[in-house]
Amino acid sequence: MAFRDGPFENIKVPLAWTAAVVVIVGIIGAVMLLLGDGRQSRNVGGYAPVRAGFETGAAPVGGVLSAPVRWTGNAVDYVKGYFFAVSENRRLRAEIVELNAWRDEALALKNVNGRYEQMLGVKTEPPIPMVTGLAITDARGPFARSRLLNIGAAKGVRVGNPVLSEHGLVGRIMGASAGNSRMLLLTDVASRTPVLVERTDARAMLTGDGSGSPRLDYIRGAGSVQEGDRIMTSGDGGGFPRGLPIGVAAKGVDGTWRVKLFSDRSAIDYVRVLLFQDFSQLADQNALNAPPLASLAAAPPPTPAQAAAIQDVATRRAAAAAATAERVRAANAAPPPAPVATTALPTRTPTAAATRPAAVRPATPQPRPATPRPAAPAPQPVAPAPDVEPTPAGAAE
Amino acid sequence: MRRAITVRVVGPLQWIVYPALSAIAVTVLLAIPFRLFGLNLPEPVLPIVLAFAWPLIRPSMLAPAVLFGLGLFLDLFWGGTLGLWPLSLLAVYGAILLASNFLAGQATIVLFALYVASTGFAFFLAYMITTLSLGNAPSILAVLGQVVPTLLLFPLADWLIQRFDDADVRFR
Q: Is residue B18 included in any domain, yes or no?
């Protein structure tokens, strides 16, 4: 039968079989996708453009849907503020009284801290630029906890940037397109953040597991964590700046140490993205690339007093060096010492004297300061001079 | 006198495409960052309802393909591992398809038990895949926080089955 006669027209395959074939093909495709997509390597893999394209399309939809919710929240806040103005005013007055004392203490501590930093030569980190964005969609499941933000690479957002709310660290950027970016929350199962305990400076790893309070793993030191300890970023590894607040330590129901996040205090709608890459970003690249000791060429000229002191020290050092050289030369030119009479040391034999170690009596005659030698000048006046270092600071003193 | 007979045609558009689009729309709606009294919106996996109901309605080549697309949508929209939900949804669909001959015409309580088992199977698969791929097990409580809202969607699956199951023996 020819193909144009339709030899397959009479073949009837059960629908369940064809559906099963599609299921099997789909499962194979899903497994291939799984093997090709590790969440850790999503940004260097081939799926990053797919995700960026999808999020570019999904972001406007999320923005439109979340706008009424935001407006409603603002309206509720406005009405609430109107009705509760008196009680809030009282509360704020009491808070101001309390905060005034803290402000004075903070100013004093800031002054002392600045002096310590100056004395110790501590290189503090310069301020990091940041951009503000809005979360438009929210994934809260156990297998993925992330948020889509309405700011992207066009505003300088890059993969790895830390994200903060008004209370503390929220997560970091894990994908960015031109106008949008996706933020991986600290609670996501793929999130790992190096942290420290503020009280003991002990290091740990904050590990998300899809729950509201991430776990503290690899805590260094026994008893280094207590209930209520403040947890903040340690800056280890260079992924985050040091000292970003995260939360307080608490015991979980499963007995592990967990962190109650500061960012849980309110909804995460507006966020700030720190445009932080790593520590090399914070250093002045020109200063790092400058040749060694280049700053000496730019040092200011010494004052006349410093110049005179430096010249004096240099003269003393030269005189001391010349005296030492003359003394050695004179010692070398002097005749060898006369042989000592054997009656003075009757127990010593020439053989015994010859077998003495060189360290006790070296072969080369050494100068003896106690013996008067008119050929060599007296070195006493310049003896302490070599101890003085010819540095400008030392000379000035 | 002959009366005109109205024939109601229930095609794939009615029982596959519209429910799938509805699932996408509700998923997007529930992803709004809305918080009231410290509580967020629930986040059920809506396509599990379809993966359970579709093979009980009738076998179809389109249904698993759409489920694959729905799973991809969930992974991309939630920012999860790509392939996680396509595999879980198709595994549920395949298992129900294999057992559909034994499940046709069962009572609602039996279907509910089967729905619980299907949902548990899908989440178990997702849990294992996540644990193996990331080296970190998700919290059981967090998983339950998504399983329970998904289980509460059983009336929707039951309605779909009652609405579109035509009891045609050709599809048994």
A: yes
